[in-house]
Amino acid sequence: MPEDLQGERTEPASPRKRREAREKGQVAKSQDLNTAVILIAALLLLNFCRESLLGGMGSLYRSLLSNLHNMPLDIDTIQVYTGAGAVYLLKLLVPLFIGMIVVGLGVSLLQVGPALSLKALIPNFSRFDPIRGMKKLVSLRGGVKLVMALVKITVVGAILYWTLASKINEIMPTMQLSVGAILEFLFDVCFTIGVRIAVALLIIAILDYAYQRWQHEKDLKMSKREVKEELKRYEGDPNIKQRRMRTQRAILQQRMMHKVSEAEVVITNPTHLAIALEYKRETMSAPRVVAKGAGHMARKIREIAIVHGIPIVEKKPLAQALYKTVEVGMTISPDLYQTLAEILAYVYELEKQAAQTN
User: Fold this and answer.
1) 336 to each of 120, 256, 264, how far by Cα in Å?
2) In the prediction, which pLDDT does 328 show?
3) Domain 258-357 has CATH 3.40.1690.10
4) Whole-angstrom Cα distance, residue 114 to residue 34?
5) pLDDT tens, 245-293?
């Protein structure tokens, strides 16, 4: 439904909508943050493995030069030595690649948590809609992406120029150095450039991540109409729900009132509260509350008790304790046994006297 028909989106997203968006792979994530952190991790790993890498590359370079005069210059020989060199370099860089993969997965996990969405892998051909693509380009999100791209290009270009300009006077003298010294110099220059670019990209990525979080929350917002429709769809119409609850409550009250006729005694407050107790000495270990009520319900319980000749005993503290602590269908707590025993004894005495009179 179009947004103008739904109304302005001013309400925070419901937990259900957040969960559905997460299942579709719609999460706040900055790919630039992954790239920046992976680049920093790669530089740190390169610096840590610096000696072994430079030593291995130096050995490979010297081996090629020493065997150059013994090699026939044909395609097969070049392919063999190129393949052997590539495999040797790959072995040197395997720890670096593993470290970068682990760091990349860790950064993604920190950004979005364990959000594996299979729905995100399903092709969405609406993404190839040229009209929709043009709308994205002129939207706020498209403008931010364009600005970010221009900023990154400008920053990277400026860092390259600044670093190389500061090293220009050191480049020519390296031609007279040994192979190891040349590799050391190139490593230092590349490492300096890499660190400066990585730090700059990390700052930009943090800003991009903050924007992605803000944009994600904005996209998830709901209109008041959407909130109401979601409540109806998943929890039912509130009006119908209230009517159902009233009907259930009425049925329970009718059942409870029917149980009053089976009670042994009704304890009152005297008019505000009424609690009906059932006790069968042969089958029950303690009296049980079969009905209780306040106000109108208390009056109805007393009326039913009078009709069925059930004794009504006024005991304010006991009535309050029973009403507050014992639910319908539950037996009374042991600390009330003594008081109720006295009341039941009184009731049984009344019944005995009535039987003798008759």
Assistant:
1) 63, 22, 16
2) 87
3) yes
4) 16
5) 777 777 777 888 888 888 888 889 878 899 898 888 777 788 888 889 8
- Please list the alpha-helical segments (H only) found in the chain: 3-6, 15-23, 31-48, 50-66, 75-112, 130-137, 140-171, 179-220, 224-235, 238-260, 296-307, 316-325, 337-357
Q: What is the pTM of this model?
A: 0.47
pLDDT in tens, 138-159: 566 677 788 888 988 998 899 8
CATH 3.40.1690.10, the chain: domain bounds: 258-357
CB 135 within 8 A of CB 176: no
Q: Residues 6 or more apart from 6 whose CB is under 8 A from it? A: 223, 225, 226
From the number of C-beta atoms within 10 Å of its C-beta (0-12, 13-18, 19+), residue 229 rates as middle
**What is the token pair recorded at 148?**
């970010």
